[in-house]
């Protein structure tokens, strides 16, 4: 399998190069040249595989045997998911009232308690594997020449919290990898700050930058935009545009599909139609669902759930991708700060990948007559490049009505307010009829039910909104398709509630006179106990400039590079 750029300027990349380079030189994102074919018996043969075995089979389809032999791939995958606390890695549970037919897919059992671990545990091992192999090959080829410059990468990334901690836990202690994570000083949650800065491995460097997350991101962009610096230190990116991250995330769509169908069968139900709701920011998580569907997993619909930063919901509703609808320039370039901060984005970096598929399908049918070149892949690259250029200069573009229609067949979308997020957390933790009983109360009706984190709550609310919008599909007895199957919704849970304790506490104390009975310590994972008091290592960066960060990175790397 080779990889090409969504903007048409690069083709024939190996998986290894696509992963190590992150972004294509033409500014596009790497995608596979084609969608592989599942083995004919996948639906039976894969149905009961443990997570790691299933992952090896799915990844195998996108990575040639000549790039990573199956035994190595299986070992990389096994190592990546051994760090998860749950034996099923990403378990499913029923959520709320059975008549609502909702499940939650828990993606937070990895080391940093957020879904990004699923991809970043694997990416860290992949980086180490490729770099070590390059070094061994060099050593074998140049035995007589003695000392060689080793292959290494310097990962530089900005974080508002979740990406940074997941990247740090994915890359800690990896050979030939140095990691610099910039976070806005004092503006990430206390747990997130502690998660990042208490990792003391010598290759991990936290930089606390005075400023906002956008300031951090601008600094990182400036460093990547400096060719001399970028080449000298072999800068590598871990943000969600990296193809390996998307690929790793397709696995839990398959895994949860099998798990829910199996559990329904065990309860005496027939096979179900499955809808997934996905709390979305950069469109990486839900894009993985799109690939699963492209592969042939029968997903009925993917619902994109956003917070007030709703560029995706606006696109799926109108067909217009527009940075902001306000005309005031300063307001237009500001992200709304919400209770689901990992989804606070202005534009969604992975959305470009979906655009490519929409453009290709369009080119393969209606668009053909319009261009001299009738290779749909080539035409798709041209269309995406034009859209992205227009987006850069004018802040928006609109797709053809037929393209919008095709997108709506696969995707639904809902934007959820902070008020609804709080209300949803509250309702699922304290079902109707809750009267101040404690967790030890034996009446099941009065038990606390399920504690949602604010990101997951956005997705669950979106599922409720979809049910109101389409009672024919989600209603109590609707069997909307020819086979008479019922539709069930799987809500992706992207973070553990304890990571966002402030929002959760606010939700549970909101307008509730018996608030004092909720004790956060009751739900605190043991890994978080004492975390805030552990020793930390973090470099403060004086306000202002890219130069300061550059100096800090070079001063830190200096002794390391000399030592090598
Ligand atoms: C990153 C993140 C998201 C958004 O995922 P995307 O792939 O960027 O759409 C949602 N919830 C949490 C908790 C996250 O960390």
Automatic annotation (TrEMBL):
It is an enzyme of class 4 (lyase). One of its GO terms (molecular function) is pyridoxal phosphate binding. Belongs to the threonine synthase family. Pathway: Amino-acid biosynthesis; L-threonine biosynthesis; L-threonine from L-aspartate: step 5/5. It comes from the Eukaryota. Its EC number is 4.2.3.1. Pfam families: PALP, THR4_C, Thr_synth_N. The modification N6-(pyridoxal phosphate)lysine is found at residue 116. Residues 2-81 form the Threonine synthase N-terminal domain. Keywords: Amino-acid biosynthesis, Lyase, Pyridoxal phosphate, Threonine biosynthesis. Its cofactor is pyridoxal 5'-phosphate. The keyword DNA-binding does not apply. The keyword Lyase applies. InterPro entries: Ser/Thr_deHydtase_PyrdxlP-BS, Thr_synth_N, Thr_synth_N_sf, Thr_synthase-like, Threonine_Synthase, TrpB-like_PALP, TrpB-like_PALP_sf. Residues 102-341 form the Tryptophan synthase beta chain-like PALP domain. NCBIfam families: thrC. This is threonine synthase. GO terms for biological process: threonine biosynthetic process.
């Amino acid at each position: 399998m080779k990889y090409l750029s969504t903007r048409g300027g690069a083709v024939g990349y190996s998986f290894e190069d696509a992963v190590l380079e992150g972004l294509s030189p033409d500014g596009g994102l790497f995608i596979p040249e084609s969608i592989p074919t599942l083995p004919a018996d996948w639906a039976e043969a894969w149905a009961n595989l443990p997570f790691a075995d299933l992952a090896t089979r799915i990844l195998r389809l996108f990575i040639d045997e000549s790039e990573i032999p199956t035994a190595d791939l299986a070992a990389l995958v096994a190592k990546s998911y051994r760090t998860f606390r749950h034996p099923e890695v990403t378990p499913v549970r029923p959520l709320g009232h059975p008549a609502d037919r909702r499940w939650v897919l828990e993606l937070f059992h990895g080391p940093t308690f957020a879904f990004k671990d699923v991809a970043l545990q694997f990416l860290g091992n992949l980086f180490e594997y490729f770099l070590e192999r390059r070094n061994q090959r060099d050593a074998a080829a140049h035995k007589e020449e003695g000392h060689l410059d080793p292959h290494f990468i310097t990962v530089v990334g900005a974080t508002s919290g979740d990406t940074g901690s997941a990247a740090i836990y994915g890359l800690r202690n990896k050979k030939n990898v140095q990691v610099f994570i910039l976070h806005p000083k004092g503006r990430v949650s206390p747990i997130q700050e502690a998660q990042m800065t208490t990792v003391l491995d010598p290759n991990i460097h936290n930089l606390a930058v005075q400023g906002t997350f956008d300031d951090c991101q601008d600094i990182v962009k400036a460093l990547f935009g400096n060719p001399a610096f970028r080449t000298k230190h072999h800068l590598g990116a871990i943000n969600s545009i990296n193809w390996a991250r998307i690929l790793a995330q397709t696995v839990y769509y398959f895994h949860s599909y099998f798990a829910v169908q199996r559990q329904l069968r065990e309860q005496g139900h027939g096979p179900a139609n499955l809808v997934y709701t996905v709390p979305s920011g950069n469109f990486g998580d839900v894009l993985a669902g799109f690939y699963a569907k492209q592969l042939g997993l029968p997903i009925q619909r993917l619902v994109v759930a956003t917070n007030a930063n709703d560029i995706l919901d606006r696109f799926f509703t109108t067909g217009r991708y527009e940075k902001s609808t306000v005309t005031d320039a300063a307001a237009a370039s500001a992200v709304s700060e919400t209770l689901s901060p990992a989804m606070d984005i202005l534009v969604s970096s992975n959305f470009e990948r979906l655009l490519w598929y929409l453009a290709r399908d369009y080119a393969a049918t209606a668009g053909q007559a319009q261009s001299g070149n009738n290779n749909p892949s080539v035409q798709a690259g041209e269309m995406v490049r034009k859209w992205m250029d227009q987006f850069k200069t004018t802040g928006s573009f609109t797709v053809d009505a037929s393209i919008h229609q095709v997108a709506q067949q696969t995707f639904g979308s809902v934007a959820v307010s902070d008020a609804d997020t709080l209300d949803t957390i509250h309702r699922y933790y304290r079902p109707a009829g809750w009267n101040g009983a404690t967790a030890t109360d034996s009446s099941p009706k009065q038990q606390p039910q399920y504690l949602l984190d604010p990101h997951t709550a956005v997705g669950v609310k979106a599922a409720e909104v979809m049910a109101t919008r389409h009672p024919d599909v989600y209603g109590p007895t609707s069997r909307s398709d020819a086979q008479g199957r019922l539709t069930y919704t799987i809500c992706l849970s992207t973070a553990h509630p304890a990571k966002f304790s402030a929002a959760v506490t606010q939700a549970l104390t909101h307008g509730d006179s018996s608030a004092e009975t909720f004790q956060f310590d009751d739900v605190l994972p043991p890994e978080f106990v004492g975390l805030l008091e552990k020793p930390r290592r973090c470099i403060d960066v004086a306000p202002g400039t890219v130069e300061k960060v550059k100096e800090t990175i070079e001063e830190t790397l200096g002794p390391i590079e000399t030592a090598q």
